[in-house]
C-alpha cells in the first residue's frame, strides 16, 4: 500500500490514480480536507481502498498521526510518495522570510518528516520504496524559483543520503523531476498567461508540456518491480527541457552557411 502526500489534487492525485491501477491501496495526505474528499471521490471505482489523513507535513506531530493512521488501517506501508509542495514565482529579492520558510518547510522539511516517520513501517515491508517529487529546475536553475529550487535541491541531497543509509534495510529512495506540467493548480500559480506558457514551451526540445499521467508512470516505475536495483537516482520527466535545445536548434539555413557548414560527403583537406 502507498501513502501519497499532496494526494488530493494535481500530480499527486494522478500518482494515486496510477498506483491504484497497479493494485495499491492508498492513504492520501493533504492539508485540505476539501482536496482529500475530492481525491477520494475521483478514485471511486478504481478498485483501491482509499483512506485519507488530513496532514500539514510541516508539523512532525501531524505526520506521525498520518503514519499511525496508515498503520491502523492497513498494518503496513510499502511506498511513500513525498509529493506535497508549495510554490509561487517571485524574484529572490521580493521573497519574504515567511514566503521562503513556507516553501522550504513544506518541500524539504515535509519530505524529511514523512520519510523519518515512515521508516519503522518501511523497514519491515518486503519491497519498500520512497519516491520524492522534485523538479528539474532544482539543478538547472530558473528565474523566480530561488525558494523552491533550493528546497528541491535539498530533497535531492536527502534522496541520495537516505538511499545510502537505508539500503541496508532494503529501502530504495529515488526521485522524479517533472518539467512543466499544466494542472489547475499550476495554471493558477505558475502559468499565469498564455505568453508565459508559450515561452516555456519554446524551451522544451519535445515542444510541449508534460502530462500528469507521464509523471505518474515514472513514479510507478521507480516504485515497482522493474526498478529493484535502482536507488539514489533522479528521473527527469521534462521533455528534455533541462538539456536545452542546443545551439544548432537556433540556427536556420542561412546561419549554417555563415558558420561554414558544408556537404559532409566532401573530403576535408586532411583526408
TrEMBL record:
Protein name: Short-chain dehydrogenase/reductase SDR
PANTHER family: PEROXISOMAL 2,4-DIENOYL-COA REDUCTASE (PTHR43296), PEROXISOMAL 2,4-DIENOYL-COA REDUCTASE [(3E)-ENOYL-COA-PRODUCING] (PTHR43296:SF2)
Single GO MF annotation: 2,4-dienoyl-CoA reductase (NADPH) activity
Keyword Oxidoreductase: yes
Any one GO BP annotation for this protein: fatty acid catabolic process
GO cellular component: peroxisome
Species lineage: unclassified sequences, metagenomes, ecological metagenomes
InterPro entries reported for this sequence: DECR2-like, NAD(P)-bd_dom_sf, SDR_fam
Keyword annotations of the record: NADP, Oxidoreductase
Amino acid at each position: 500500500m502507498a501513502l501519497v502526500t499532496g494526494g488530493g489534487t494535481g500530480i499527486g492525485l494522478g500518482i494515486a490514480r496510477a498506483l491504484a491501477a497497479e493494485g495499491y491501496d492508498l492513504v492520501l495526505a493533504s492539508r485540505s480536507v476539501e482536496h482529500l474528499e475530492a481525491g477520494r471521490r475521483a478514485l471511486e471505482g478504481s478498485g483501491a481502498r482509499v483512506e485519507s489523513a488530513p496532514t500539514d507535513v510541516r508539523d512532525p506531530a501531524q505526520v506521525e498521526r498520518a503514519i499511525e493512521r496508515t498503520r491502523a488501517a492497513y498494518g503496513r506501508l510499502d511506498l511513500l510518495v513525498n509529493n506535497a509542495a508549495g510554490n509561487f514565482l517571485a524574484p529572490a529579492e521580493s521573497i519574504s522570510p515567511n514566503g521562503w520558510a513556507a516553501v522550504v518547510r513544506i518541500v524539504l522539511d515535509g519530505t524529511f518528516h514523512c520519510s523519518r516517520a515512515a521508516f519503522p513501517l518501511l523497514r519491515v515491508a518486503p519491497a519498500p520504496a520512497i519516491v520524492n517529487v522534485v523538479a528539474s529546475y532544482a539543478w538547472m536553475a530558473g528565474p523566480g524559483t530561488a525558494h523552491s529550487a533550493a528546497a528541491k535541491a535539498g530533497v535531492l541531497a536527502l534522496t541520495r543520503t537516505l538511499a545510502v543509509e537505508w539500503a541496508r534495510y532494503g529501502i530504495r529512495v529515488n526521485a522524479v523531476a517533472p518539467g512543466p506540467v499544466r494542472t489547475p493548480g499550476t495554471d493558477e500559480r505558475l502559468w499565469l498567461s498564455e505568453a508565459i506558457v508559450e515561452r516555456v514551451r519554446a524551451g522544451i526540445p519535445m515542444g510541449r508540456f508534460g502530462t500528469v499521467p507521464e509523471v505518474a508512470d515514472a513514479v510507478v516505475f521507480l516504485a515497482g518491480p522493474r526498478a529493484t536495483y535502482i536507488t539514489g537516482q533522479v528521473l527527469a520527466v521534462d521533455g528534455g527541457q533541462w538539456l536545452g535545445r542546443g545551439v544548432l536548434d537556433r540556427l536556420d539555413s542561412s546561419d549554417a552557411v555563415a558558420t561554414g557548414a558544408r556537404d559532409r560527403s566532401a573530403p576535408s583537406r586532411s583526408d
